[in-house]
Amino acid sequence: MTEPTSQSKSPIDQRSHERKLPNAAGKRLLFYVLGLCFLLLVVMEIKARRDDYRVNYYPPSTDLWVAQWLELENSLPPDQTVVIGASRMQFGVIVPEWKKLTGKSLHMLAFPGSPPGPVLEKLAELETFHGTVICGFAPPFSFSHEDTPNRDRMKDNFKAIEPSRYSLTHHLSLAACDFLIPKFKFMNSFAYSPVLLSYSYWPIPNRDGTVIPAVFPFAGSLDRDLQFRFARNVREIMRYEIVAQIQEGTRRIIGHYGTSNIDSLLKRYKDAVAKIESRGGKVIFVRPPSDGRFLAFERKHNPRDKFYDRIVNETGCFGVHFEDYPELEELQCLEDSHLDVEDGLKFTRRLVKILQEENLID
């Protein structure tokens, strides 16, 4: 065999393999990207200010609900009036209008898709609380089976209460939102998110019968105090076909799981009401309007006499069912389930009048 040449033993010149890049390319490209992003944000801010939508904290988050609960525990008077239930109460009971009519503040603890029972029990356990609870019923959610996925939202809220008391992340996050969201209109992600806009206006429709995610197209806003409001031009921007599909999927899921055991549910309501009343508080049950396909579903799966009437009668609490009051029954939901701002104001005024006539509130 031949000996390796001396040339093969020589070290490899690493410089011949170096990749030469322009020294300033990275910085220049970085400035281009930052400049483009800044320009896009300026354009979006100009458009957002022209649209002039309300300050929007959507989507409803655990942080927002927990902040409301901690405020009730730490800052509000023990006789505070609170609202619990699902999103129908968030759309239908207008907090500033309530204060204007009664002279007293109203604290929102309602949360989308959530039953009021667990929150009522939580208020019953809060020994310092002896106020008035406006407990709203949206039958498909209020009387849903314990394993129904919509119940997980409030469970997550409850789990977050204790860690959030001392969580720097929780408090800094809310402080940052409170500082930035009111100042910069483009931070309304519900209205201006490219992903959500693409989803809402995608030209290919969803297949019939598909249970699609509950990602609602932009139609309104969520205030810092959990007050929902439809936008003033909601009838122009509402994507009714997508909302109808989401609602149909929701009804299918709830129908699949079935309803709660009413006897067990009734006992829990009675126990919670008794605790609150023993401290001088009171509970008022409210059934806000629904119509169309939702009302038909509710009458079939959650008949009034087996659910709402039993709870009202056996707890001994006062109840306001929209079907018992012509001035409430005439109100029409925008998409079978929620009132728009104008009808929400009417509902609030008429509800206050009913409760004042019954000497339940001042």
Write out key terms for the chains shown.
single chain; two-stranded antiparallel sheet; Rossmann fold
Description:
By secondary structure, this protein is an alpha/beta fold. The protein has a domain at 55-195 and 220-231 and 261-357: SGNH hydrolase (Rossmann fold). It contains 18 helices and 7 strands. The mean pLDDT is 91.
Write the layout of secondary structure elements.
Blueprint: H1 6-9, H2 25-51, H3 62-74, E1 81-84, H4 87-92, H5 95-102, E2 106-108, H6 117-125, E3 132-136, H7 139-142, H8 152-166, H9 168-180, H10 189-192, H11 194-200, E4 220-222, E5 228-230, H12 234-237, H13 240-257, H14 262-278, E6 282-287, H15 292-301, H16 308-315, E7 318-321, H17 326-329, H18 341-357
Parallel strand pairs: 1-2, 1-3, 3-6, 6-7
Antiparallel strand pairs: 4-5
Task: Summarize the structure in short.
Helix content is 52%, strand content 8%.
Q: Strand share of the residues?
A: 5-15%
Question: What Rg is obtained from the alpha carbons, in whole angstroms?
Answer: 27 Å
Order of helices and strands: HHHEHHEHEHHHHHEEHHHEHHEHH
Parts with pLDDT < 50 across at least 5 consecutive residues? none
Number of strands: 7
CATH domain class name of the domain at 55-195 and 220-231 and 261-357: Alpha Beta
What is the CATH architecture assignment of the domain at 55-195 and 220-231 and 261-357? Answer: 3-Layer(aba) Sandwich
CATH superfamily of the domain at 55-195 and 220-231 and 261-357: SGNH hydrolase
Number of helices: 18
CATH topology of the domain at 55-195 and 220-231 and 261-357, what is it called? Answer: Rossmann fold
Main sheet properties: 5 strands, parallel
N- and C-termini, Cα separation? 110 Å
Query: Mean pLDDT, rounded to whole units?
Result: 91
Estimated structural class: alpha/beta
Query: What is the topology, as strand order, of the major beta sheet?
Result: 2-1-3-6-7
- Global morphology: globular
Helix content: 40-55%
